[in-house]
Amino acid sequence: MKPVKVGLLGLGTVGTGVVRIVEGNQEDLSRQVGSPIIIEKIAVKNIEKYRSIEVETAKLTEDPWEVIRDPEIDVIIEVMGGVDQTKEYILEALERGKHIVTANKDLMALHGSEVLAKAQEKQCDIFYEASVAGGIPIIRTLIEGFSSDRITRIMGIVNGTTNFILTKMSQEGASYEEVLKEAQELGYAESDPTSDVEGLDAARKMAILGTLGFRSNVELKDVSVSGISKVTSEDIAFAKKLGYEMKLLGIAERQGDEFTINVQPTMVRKQHPLASVNGVFNAVYVHGEAVGETMFYGAGAGEMPTATSVVADLVAVVKNLKLGVNGLKAIVPYNPKKISNDEDVYFKNFVLLHVDDKAGVLARITQVFAEFDVSLASVVQQPNEVNPDAEIIIVTHLASKASMKKVLEHFETLDVIRRIKSVYRVEG
Amino acid sequence: MKPVKVGLLGLGTVGTGVVRIVEGNQEDLSRQVGSPIIIEKIAVKNIEKYRSIEVETAKLTEDPWEVIRDPEIDVIIEVMGGVDQTKEYILEALERGKHIVTANKDLMALHGSEVLAKAQEKQCDIFYEASVAGGIPIIRTLIEGFSSDRITRIMGIVNGTTNFILTKMSQEGASYEEVLKEAQELGYAESDPTSDVEGLDAARKMAILGTLGFRSNVELKDVSVSGISKVTSEDIAFAKKLGYEMKLLGIAERQGDEFTINVQPTMVRKQHPLASVNGVFNAVYVHGEAVGETMFYGAGAGEMPTATSVVADLVAVVKNLKLGVNGLKAIVPYNPKKISNDEDVYFKNFVLLHVDDKAGVLARITQVFAEFDVSLASVVQQPNEVNPDAEIIIVTHLASKASMKKVLEHFETLDVIRRIKSVYRVEG
């Protein structure tokens, strides 16, 4: 049978894994799709660079356009990263009727609707399983596995770097700075870690999951984000004492026809399945009206896990190619986008305050919560170990995001509060 | 657009859920498939029976053939259960060019290859996501999500009844008999619980998962089975003391081109993701050469979770119908079936012996292990609390199934051993 020819944009970590799988599992793959799959051309930054795999030099080019314009090539796998230039490549490839497999979360979160629309116009497939949670087939699961259900909540540990950092801080009592440095040395964190630690990477992935889960066109700007750079080992120790683990959670939740998506460090009760997801692993917890609680766990990044998802998408494209049905199964998000007001988003909160150690302080503070209708699940006042302040540790019942905001604003004006030390969402 | 008409065989727990979802999510479903989906006819045992949902009496029939022979019906959903008679219905429906969605693990485990061949011959779809692990889309995951990978190991908690029993025994220290009775009262166990507690139900599901994971035609007879009816609360207490939870695990594992599938009560180390899967929940742990460790968790049974999978399959059938590609994506298992010899299957073991409390006994017992080349990770001898015997608790290193069999056979002949109290596989 006529082989299917594939062009690869990028031969970094994931690209290398893709070559390994396509070559190593060639027999298995061709049994499934009915013909050989050949990686015909590969665009790289530098042809001369040393690589851990052998690739025919004749297949390499430093010009991505050469791959995109090759009329022999049916499918483009994009694993080079980047946004604006890469979008241009992908749009041109689609224009030429080529199908796309991409691992590019930034592109899909920022310009997903544009490239998906172009793909539909040209009756091309564009698959992006590897863009979220590496080897976990969560995109397929949301599109196909739960096509019948109404998803009400998606909670994800979708950034391995921050989960590695928080796990180490929790297990070893180490500081954020120490563990970040270790993560950088191990290659788990970039030299500029901003995108990971400030939650931006997780927010992009949550925008993609929200779009699929709620079948509505979620954009990055719809996601509220706060990162982990201010989480201290003291906070984590408090969390553990109360029976929680600290996790950077992306939480997409729907009430009626409105939804909200928030990424923030969250105290997760130890019994919750997400609490024991450790190290660089990822997990996505999905709640559907009919299916109830589910969770999907696996490696969120890395050469081979991510390549598994890329090549599974390639198999899907080639099967569609054989059947002549590429681009015909895409679902355009059909639900209008309505973001919930902060008045309608409820969660529990952990609040740690440093206050003057004198009579009546606790009364004034609890009075503020009462004023804004936030009821409290537990309150502990204790002397601080290192300075003359007292510490007040409060866990609220479910409170609206808006009310909590007002409470915290009010606290800024209270002279008895020396410092709002930490505020975290609490789940489970 | 012309509606797609569906015939339903069975209106028990799952069938009721299917009606609820198809009616309740009609708008969402028709957005995805491009036309309404109508449940046209329903075969039931007794038309007069009280039901928790309203169904037009005109749609009901007590004759399944009436549904199967209706030329208006495109898709048959089989949720009536049973094997021989049901197979006849399904084969006849396929003969008439109708597509099948079934939740019937017994049928698929016993006659899967026959009905799949018939479906291929007639270019019909037959999907069976709901047959394993209820609401968890594990079948899709193995077929599509991991199409690119070589699966080396599948470990499943795929029977909710036994997981409920073992969880209760572990959490409350209750006896097997007490908890079984409670499970029966709650409707989690049948009045004749044999199929669940003796591991047969799990074996059927593992035969299905093994077929998909190893792309080889696994039959029920290829699965070795032992159930939980001999597990005592004492055994579970021992497991916990050593850092394990007792679970009924189905384990399908591959070495080279050979595989083995075993269902047995297993001590799972507490840190393993399967150890904290409790109650009626199911989970399937999958290890692939490229993707590494993954786990999929959710409700293994119940009206709505199982119906979620059934209706997701229905959506897939209808999408294929619109594209005219039904039956064209099926993969016939292409790997020849080679079952590993017991000499080549290695795992750790827990052994609890009651022995004479006198000098030299431990030496004789450890001598037997040495003779058959089984090395020991830990050995503890202690007096039994209620009788004059001593207890010896042994955990082995990895040992071949064949060697362990010989050790245990030899133990039967040793006069110093009063009783081989328990033997369990150990994982993690």
Automatic annotation (TrEMBL), chains A, B:
The EC number on file is 1.1.1.3
* Source species, domain of life: Bacteria
Q: Tell me which residues make up the ACT domain.
A: 350-428
Q: Which NCBIfam families does this chain map to?
A: PRK06349.1 (NF004976)
Q: Where is the active site?
A: 205
InterPro entries in the record, alphabetically? ACT-like_dom_sf (IPR045865), ACT_dom (IPR002912), Asp/hSer_DH_NAD-bd (IPR005106), HDH (IPR016204), HDH_cat (IPR001342), HDH_CS (IPR019811), NAD(P)-bd_dom_sf (IPR036291)
Q: What's the protein name? A: Homoserine dehydrogenase
Question: Which CDD domains has this protein been placed in?
Answer: ACT_HSDH-Hom (cd04881)
Residues binding NADPH: 105
